[in-house]
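Re: export button greyed out
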Amino acid sequence: MNSIEEKCQRKGVRLTDQRKIIAKVLSESKAVYGSKDHPDVDELHKRVSEIDKKISIATVYRTVKLFEESGILEKHDFKGGKARYEPSMDEHHDHLIDINTGEIIEFVDKEIEKLQNEVAKKLGYKLVDHKLELYGSKIKKK
Amino acid sequence: MNSIEEKCQRKGVRLTDQRKIIAKVLSESKAVYGSKDHPDVDELHKRVSEIDKKISIATVYRTVKLFEESGILEKHDFKGGKARYEPSMDEHHDHLIDINTGEIIEFVDKEIEKLQNEVAKKLGYKLVDHKLELYGSKIKKK
DNA sequence: ATACTTGCAAAAGATTTGCCGCATG
DNA sequence: CATGCGGCAAATCTTTTGCAAGTAT
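Workaround output, generated via the alternate export path:
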């Protein structure tokens, strides 16, 4: 069973037919490249359309915005102009983006997180949010 | 004397009248809020217009793009939709953005940089670029 | 009945481009 | 002369919105 739907219920977000389909597509986005693929709205709409051609792209936009505001989705502004989305995870993580393929690898580094907090505090700020993106190219083994 | 102009010469970027003015405005952007203010294209155009009303916003767009491709400017996609620019610095730095005022504080943390390289290598990637943004709110002293 | 949703098309905001005259080497 | 540059307006791209009809409570 799809945990995005569960979260909607918990947050009091009404689950219409189209939202159910969008939630389903988002849930399945997890395994496309081995890890998640963080689709943009256009790509989402394409996948959603294969299930129900009647769903408009405006609805997809409205739904991802709604889900994001409810904390169900996370929005990322990686290079490339279009926003990309992923279902919110329990544990925070950052991203390494393959500059050649666009593929995304997720990682966690407690040490870096700790240092970020220290840096912010040193500057007189309370850390509210952060974004760490690494851009790299695959090391080919000879 | 304005070091952006120097860089243009070194890189073989022709310095027209309008580019000179844009370079000047960019150089002066350094001290607006105590640190740099990372203006967006609209803001740049506004400041440039005070010097020469004839300069079109298209020229500003073309110029920042040209400067960026020449390594003279750095483009940032912070939250808020519009790209913001700052003159390239010799030493790399990251940004802490005040979520209440939009003010930007620059910082460097060698330790974090080192860990980023290690993370990338561990994942099988060569680190080409990275982006670290901290979002925080000022700690008020009692 | 009332309040929320959706599809469609139009609008809006940011950025790019075609065209054509102008400047520069 | 030949190439590059700049102004203007039109075009593009992503995202939002107004409206009228449909749905759920």
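Residues 14, 16, 18-19, 54-56, 58-59, 62, 81 of chain A lie near DNA strand C (CB under 10 Å from a C1'). The button fix ships in the next patch.
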